[in-house]
Write a structure and sequence with these properties.
Layout (H helix, E strand, L loop, with lengths): L3 E7 L2 E6 L10 H15 L6 E6 L24 H20 L4 E6 L2 E3 L1 H8 L2 E5 L3 E3 L14 H9 L1 H10 L3 E2 H6 L5 E3 L4 H13 L3 H15 L4 H16 L2 H12 L9
Parallel strand pairs: 2-3, 3-4, 4-6, 5-7, 6-9
Antiparallel strand pairs: 1-2, 7-8
Length: about 270
């Protein structure tokens, strides 16, 4: 692949690195394609249980590379609006694919995460920040709406509507400590250690049963939008019964009683 790399950093833990460091990993059409192809393959890979996303060099992702916006609308057989809507749907599809991965996703943010980069980080289940991390809703700074690529859905749910409104309306950069204060990231760590911290958390996730982790992620995000406590509990109840009937649940119980580490088979 030209714009990303992926490797196994620990048992069952994959690290996907955005790899255009000379452009602070600004996203291109090729990068959209390569990330989406990789995420699609991972969604069917039962051996990978956690995905860590980070950026090579000094940045996580500085947003859309404005020098690479795909085909020229004038050369398309679509109208300008229709072309724009197709491009917008293309970009947004990636965020949905990352968020809907059955595996847990951790964003290890180093340097700037702006615009599309912020959207990728928001799509993750957990975010960690290096001290150099910076976050902003860049769209509004270039004449567009601050509501783009899922930002208006994720950001208010993560930091609350007031902090989200300020970020989205001003487009200002917030640093790592402020991101920690408003709940955008779980913790801040020294530069050069954010991927290690992400892999450490990923390994703690991997210590749990694969089915239990997948169902936890699914139910957590489903119940963020649950219409009522009763509806949320109904989903929880069904999921617990499903999990209780797996072989891995019996293995976890046996391991607990005999004071040993469980060996899960994903059955």
């Amino acid at each position: 692949m030209e714009t990303i790399s992926i490797e196994e950093a620990a048992p069952h833990v994959a690290v996907l690195t955005l790899n255009r460091p000379d452009r602070l990993n600004a996203i291109t059409l090729k990068m959209y394609d390569e990330i989406e192809e990789t995420v699609d393959a991972l969604s069917r890979d039962t051996s990978t249980r956690v995905l860590v996303i980070t950026g090579a060099g000094r940045g996580f992702c500085s947003g859309q590379d404005l020098r690479d916006l795909g085909a020229d609308p004038a050369a398309s057989d679509l109208g300008r609006i229709q072309f724009g809507m197709a491009w917008q749907a293309r970009a947004s599809r990636l965020i949905k694919a990352v968020h809907e991965l059955p595996q847990a996703v951790i964003a290890a943010v180093n340097g700037p995460a702006s615009g599309a980069g912020l959207a990728i980080a928001l799509a993750a289940d957990i975010r960690l920040a290096a001290r150099s991390a910076r976050f902003n809703v860049a769209f509004v700074r270039i004449g567009l709406s601050g509501a783009d690529m899922g930002t208006s859905y994720f950001l208010p749910r993560i930091v609350g509507p007031t902090a989200a409104a300020e970020m989205m309306l001003t487009g200002r950069l917030i640093d790592a400590p402020e991101a920690k204060d408003n709940g955008l990231v779980l913790r801040v760590v020294d530069d050069g250690t954010v991927v290690d911290e992400a892999v450490s958390i990923a390994s703690a996730i991997v210590a749990n049963s694969p089915f239990g982790v997948r169902m936890t992620k699914q139910v957590l995000w489903n119940n963020i939008d649950a219409p009522s406590l009763d509806a949320a509990m109904q989903v929880e109840n069904r999921t617990q019964i499903l999990a209780s009937l797996t072989e891995d649940c019996r293995e976890a119980e046996a391991a607990f009683l005999t004071k040993r580490a469980p060996v899960f088979s994903n059955k």
